Amino acid sequence: MLEQSAQTLSFSSATATEQTAVLKSTKLYTGLRIALTYTDNGVVAQAPFEFITKIVIDVPEYGNNSRRVDLADNTIACLPLIAQLGSLTTADAASATNIDSTDPIDTVTPGFAYFDIPVNKLNLDEDIRVSITGQIETAGQDVLSVAFAFLDYPMMDVYFRAYDTGATTSHQQWFPADGTLQGVSITQYDTAWTGGVTNAFAYASRDDDVTKISLNGEQATTYANPEVLMAGLDEIISGGPTGTTLSWAAQDNYSMFKNFPQLSGAQYIQLDSGTSEPFLILGVMSDAA
């Protein structure tokens, strides 16, 4: 069973503000559930995730890698995917969030949102800190509430590093050497994450702009036909959907996860595109032994 935290956050300003929750628990836990509720004049009516523009989850006992999740602006769109990638099984991934990770501002289920994030707490001596920047549409009327719960089922022992390339035709993204890279997702997006009711963020539908992807410049992990990587996320999150409704293969996404080489030290992804496009690069990391 999960254990609810006594700490909550509440946003009631139409201007983005940052708040921090210091979360205490009476026992060790593997993950953290972040639950959002948006009320409009007391009625649950709007999609709350759209009103978040930054989130940092800091677990002090991990030292230099204490920031297990650190997202802001466009990279905030990675949060539903992070929840799924932190799961051990496809069944857990399916319930790790109620947000369609391929369409994170979809309003089919307005009013409520949740995300299960791997934490794998090592001790009870240090409390974790969750900092969130959020806002509401109408001051004096709307409220964005955040609640937390500690999870006790097995989760991946990983943390995440997300990067926004901006519009580019060539980009080399290095990942820190104080962790071990476990997999990478590269996704093109069409519109920026703005936060608030006018948010229009969208991942790009599949096209042929990306011309080459390479891991560390090695021949064995260089893909001149990057479309061979299009199944990566669907393979590990859902086992491969039969349609395109929840399919990453329908998006302009390229992923490396299965049988990812276990290499120490800094690693990089080289991305080349025939047209200048913006990309989000999400690395799944584990702590170095």
Question: How would you describe the overall organization of this protein?
Answer:
The protein has helices spanning 79-85, 90-94, 232-237, and strands at residues 3-11, 17-23, 31-40, 43-44, 52-58, 67-72, 112-118, 128-134, 142-151, 159-175, 179-191, 202-203, 210-215, 222-223, 253-256, 267-287. With 289 residues, the chain is mainly beta. The protein has two domains: 3-151, Sandwich (Immunoglobulin-like); 159-287, Jelly Rolls. Strands 10, 11, 12, 13, 14, 15 and 16 form a seven-stranded antiparallel beta sheet that branches. Strands 1, 3, 4, 7 and 9 form a five-stranded antiparallel beta sheet that branches. A four-stranded antiparallel beta sheet has the order 2-8-5-6, with no helix packed on it. A hairpin with a 2-residue loop joins β3 and β4 (43-44). The radius of gyration is 19 Å and the shape is globular. The model has no long low-confidence stretch (mean pLDDT 93).
